[in-house]
Amino acid sequence: MKPLQPRSSSAASSVAPQTATEPKHTQVGDGSRRIVVLVVDDDQGDCELISRAFDDCGAQVDLRFAPDGEAAIEYLANCRRGHQERPRLVLLDLNVPKMDGKATLRLIRDDPAFKALPVIVFTASEREADVLKCYQYGANSYFTKPTDLGGYRKVIRILESYWLRRAELPPDTL
């Protein structure tokens, strides 16, 4: 499995996966910690657009990238063991290798430690069957990926405004 790459939203633009051995406890100006967002997507271009969009909206996030479903599940297992910082939100593409997004979502929902973890499906698929299955499997929301940076900015602003500012997220404990 390819390892993950941790990164703050204002980090350098490279999105190539690297090992995430120690969790980042990045402090923001007021002393609070950045919110960890796990992005499960194998397309480096999409990962770059997600990162740039979070940067552009000023979100205080620490993005972690998993290139496939297996790497995402491995990351969450490492969180349970205390080796990685627990994400507060997951952006999940359906079309990832090794284990697709729907299977990944089911495994996340089957794990009592992550049953309440908000999972936002963020994918190119507009198929009604995919939308229905994702909600049946426990997705909190479903967004179709836009085609340009402006569209990514709009979607990420919506996600950031609701999920990271307005919504009460589950406690950051296992």
Highest CATH level, the class = Alpha Beta
Mean pLDDT: 82
Roughly how much helix do the residues carry, as a percent range?
25-40%
Give the CA-CA distance, first to last residue: 24 Å
Count of helical regions = 5
Proportion in β-strands: 15-25%
Evaluate the radius of gyration. Answer: 15 Å
- Classify the secondary structure makeup into a structural class: alpha/beta
What is the CATH topology descriptor? Rossmann fold
In the CATH hierarchy, the architecture is: 3-Layer(aba) Sandwich
Envelope shape: globular
Q: How are the strands ordered across the major sheet? A: 1-3-2-4-5-6
Count of structural domains: 1
How does the major sheet shape up? 6 strands, mixed
Question: Which spans have pLDDT < 50 for at least 5 consecutive residues?
Answer: 1-31
Order of helices and strands: EEHEHEHEHEH
Give a brief description.
By secondary structure, the chain is α/β, with parallel strands linked by helices. 36% of the residues lie in helices and 17% in strands. α2 packs parallel to α3 (101-110).
Task: Describe the protein in words.
The protein has about 170 residues and is α/β, with parallel strands linked by helices. It has a single domain (about 5-15, about 30-165), classed as Response regulator (Rossmann fold), CATH 3.40.50. It has five helices and six strands. It has a six-stranded mixed β-sheet, sandwiched between helices. It is globular and about 35 Å long.
